[in-house]
Design goal:
Number of helices: 24
Number of domains: 4
Radius of gyration: 52 Å
Mean pLDDT: 81
Largest sheet: 8 strands, mixed
CATH architecture of the largest domain: 3-Layer(aba) Sandwich
Structural class: alpha/beta
Low-confidence stretches: 55-72
Helix content: 40-55%
Shape: elongated
Strand content: 15-25%
Length: 763
């Protein structure tokens, strides 16, 4: 049963507040729908490109690595996302696209881009930089006349011209011509008062318009070298073209980069090959001359091992010299202080991933610096902070390269030392044999050098021709047909959800603010104060007073046994018009009919009414007692009901109201307990005056009247809070004016008749 009440307490406020919830939901739906209608739709195009992780495969062909570097390749793959967003790639992208002119139709609430359905054509030439990246408004005046300005209000436009007329203004030279074929097909697309806007975009302006909000790039998986590219634009064709152009520009950028790197390597190898060839020819000539002069044909078998060892050492030396040359080239470039964006080292020659990571960080920071210099001066804090980071990383990279060169020099000296030892061994041979071995060794070394360089050049030339496009476009962007934003279902769903929450909150707040007590059960749910009973709403004259209050009188009679000198009852309410005076008069009349001698005292100085309810005059009374005009024992007036007397309020304006609740007056009232069986005091509403608390604290019973369908729940809770604060433990609640269904009223009357019979028999 308690669970059912909890459910009802949750559900009933929502049912009563259903109109508020419906209105809030309807208003939210209409307003959000209208707002979404006025939002400019954006379309999203998507493409996919496969990234070749062997970015430096040309360098690897020249300097083969002893092992793989999976972690470094993953880092390089993730770093390519930033390469896509770099200004260099974006510039190459927009140079491929015709996005220079933007043309819009401007409405009162919405601005739409015009792509194909243009009522006029615009031919233009930018004369000055100030003509770029500014929005100009055109208003059609009729008869082929237009006005132009920087706002859409035609009244502010100072330039007026005709279609077909050449106009020079705002750094532009342009001619506007009506699109006659389109206007013949759709004549209502150009009417007087129609507003349009156009903008000439610079490459830098287009680049600045690309951000994380409209360009999103993410890897399919960290172990899968495929990037997904998403781009948002108001025009679906532009979204598609941008994604495809971006992927093509990225591939072209790498093609140019690889061509440049390959050409540099080939030029370097050509020089080395030419030198090696001359040295080989010279060594072969010297060997042939020595053999001819000394009639020698074959070297000794003992010298073969030394020659083989010498050849291996010489190959190692050549490899290290090539690596040192590449490192020296990087070191010299770093020392020059030039921008690293224009230089690409052979990272495989550096051997360590830290060089590659540091270099890419420097390159990224220099790109950031380049972007910042467009917006800020060179001495600004933003630029100086980036420059400081660049200097720190360049210093670290410079020191690392220098240390690596030193290590290579040590290894080269060690190889030279080993080769010297081999030479010393050979010197122990007989002079002719030693000389022959030296010459043959020299020929073999020169031949090995030449073959090694020739092989590498051939491989590099093949790689240059075959691998200039290491990346591959997996999915080209298609023309989007539906807008991706605004997402109407999502926006409506979220806003309606929050509107529902708001409506529920309003319903609960309204229920809390306006909820009223309707039954004894609800009164018991919200109050811990005992409920004496309820008074049914009965049309006047249908029930007698005693019958109506029989149950209440019976319960009060049970309480009389505890009091020997008469019972002192205070009747009060939290707010006016809850029926406390009516309840006091009716209960007093019913008690008097049981044979009890009852005294009613009207202390409601705000609105005295007991004298009217019991049919007597408002004479003397409390005001007369306080003024000393009448004795307290002479103040009670007879009423139309036997055993019922009343001390009315009297002329309360002529006395001090504060004296009514003084200690002397309370003692005087208590002295009446020896004369009457029951004394019922009617006090002012607590919300108007709290002086009656002094009387309540002396009462045997404080009866607080709550009116059904009138008293609000929050005020009843406030009443209970006051009762606890004042420690009025001898308190009970009476629910007044309860409307019952005929069946319930019949049952109530039947029970009241039974109580009436018992009370009269007892009397």
């Amino acid at each position: 049963m308690g669970f059912k009440k909890d459910i009802l307490n949750v559900v009933m406020p929502l049912l009563r507040g259903a109109p508020f919830i419906a209105i809030i939901l309807a208003c939210t739906y209409l307003s959000v729908s209208r707002m979404v209608d006025y939002m400019t739709p954006k379309y999203r195009a998507a493409g996919a490109i496969r990234i070749n992780l062997k970015e430096n495969h040309l360098a690897e062909d020249l300097f083969p690595a002893p092992g793989g570097g999976g972690a470094g390749k993953v880092d390089a793959f993730i770093a390519e996302i930033e390469v896509f967003k770099s200004r260099e790639i974006l510039r190459k992208t927009f140079e491929r696209l015709d996005f220079e002119l933007d043309l819009y139709r401007v409405g009162d609430m919405k601005t739409l881009p015009l792509i194909d359905e243009r009522p006029f054509l615009l031919q233009y030439e930018v004369l000055e930089p100030r003509g770029y990246d500014k929005l100009f408004y055109l208003v059609y005046q009729g008869n082929g006349r237009f006005s132009m300005g920087k706002s859409k209000e035609a009244e502010t436009h100072q330039l007026v011209f005709r279609a077909g007329e050449e106009v020079v203004a705002e750094g532009l030279r342009f001619t506007l011509r009506l699109n006659e074929p389109f206007l013949r097909e759709k004549p209502h697309s150009l009417k007087p008062g129609d507003c349009f806007a156009f903008r000439i975009n610079s490459i830098d302006g287009l680049i600045n318009g690309v951000s994380d909000a409209n360009l999103f790039i993410k890897p399919v998986d960290k172990d899968v070298p495929i990037l997904k590219i998403y781009y948002l634009n108001e025009v679906p064709e532009r979204a598609m073209k941008f994604v495809n152009a971006l992927m093509e520009a990225y591939m072209e950028h790498y093609r140019e980069k690889l061509e440049k790197k390959a050409d540099e390597m080939l030029a370097y190898l050509d020089v080395k090959l030419d030198s090696a060839e001359r040295a080989l020819r010279k060594a072969e000539a010297e060997l042939a001359a020595f053999k001819t002069a000394n009639s020698l044909v074959n070297p000794t078998q003992e010298s073969d091992a030394l020659l083989k060892e010498t050849m291996q050492l010489n190959n190692q030396k050549v490899d290290l010299e090539l690596q040192r040359a590449e490192l020296q080239r990087l070191f010299d470039y770093l020392a020059s202080g030039n921008d690293l964006r224009d230089f690409t080292p052979n990272f495989q020659a550096l051997k360590e991933d830290v060089f590659r990571t540091t270099y890419l960080k420097i390159q990224d920071l220099e790109l950031q610096k380049h972007d910042l210099l467009i917006k800020y001066p060179a001495h600004s804090e933003e630029v100086m902070n980036v420059q400081y980071k660049i200097n720190e990383l360049r210093t670290m990279l410079n020191e690392s390269v220098r240390n690596t060169i030193r290590n290579l020099d040590l290894r080269l000296r060690k190889i030279d030392q080993e080769m010297a030892e081999v030479d010393a061994t050979l010197k122990s041979y007989p002079e002719k044999q030693r000389r022959l071995v030296e010459l043959e060794r020299e020929v073999q070394l020169r031949e090995a050098m030449y073959n090694y360089l020739s092989k590498r050049r051939t491989e590099l030339a093949i790689a240059r021709s075959a691998n200039l496009y290491p990346h591959q476009i997996i999915d080209r962007a298609l023309l989007p047909t539906t807008p991706s934003s605004p997402n109407r279902p999502l926006i409506l769903g979220v806003t309606l959800f929050f509107a529902l929450l708001l409506g529920m909150a309003v319903a609960y707040a309204w229920d809390f603010w306006r909820a009223k007590v309707t039954s004894v059960s609800k009164l018991e749910d919200i109050m811990s104060i005992p409920v004496l009973g309820e008074l049914a709403h009965v049309p006047e004259g249908q029930w007698d007073t005693f019958e109506l209050h029989a149950r209440i009188v019976a319960k009060l009679t049970q309480l009389f046994a505890h009091y020997q000198n008469g019972m002192f009852i205070t009747v009060a309410s939290y707010a006016p018009l809850e029926g406390k005076s009516f309840a006091a008069a009716q209960i007093g009349r019913a008690l008097a009919q049981t044979g009890k001698r009852v005294l009613l005292i009207d202390l409601d100085i705000w609105k005295p009414s007991l004298h009217e309810l019991v049919g007597t005059v408002n004479f003397g009374g409390v005001a007369g007692i306080l003024a000393g005009d009448i004795d307290v024992y002479d103040a009670p007036l007879l009423t139309q009901t036997e055993n019922l007397e009343l001390i009315p309020a009297g002329d309360v304006e002529a006395c001090n109201p504060g004296m009514i609740f003084s200690e002397e007056f309370q003692l005087m009232l208590q002295s009446m307990g020896s004369i009457y069986d029951v004394i019922i005091v009617d006090t002012p509403p607590l919300s108007l005056a709290i002086d009656a608390v002094a009387v309540m604290q002396q009462s045997h019973l404080n009866l607080f009247v709550v009116r059904a369908r009138y008293s609000k729940v929050r005020k009843v809770k406030a009443l209970e809070k006051l009762i606890h604060e004042w420690e009025l433990f001898n308190s009970m609640v009476l629910l007044n004016d309860v409307r019952m269904k005929p069946r319930e009223l019949k049952k109530y009357r039947h029970e009241a008749t039974g109580w009436k019979r018992k009370l009269l028999n007892r009397a």
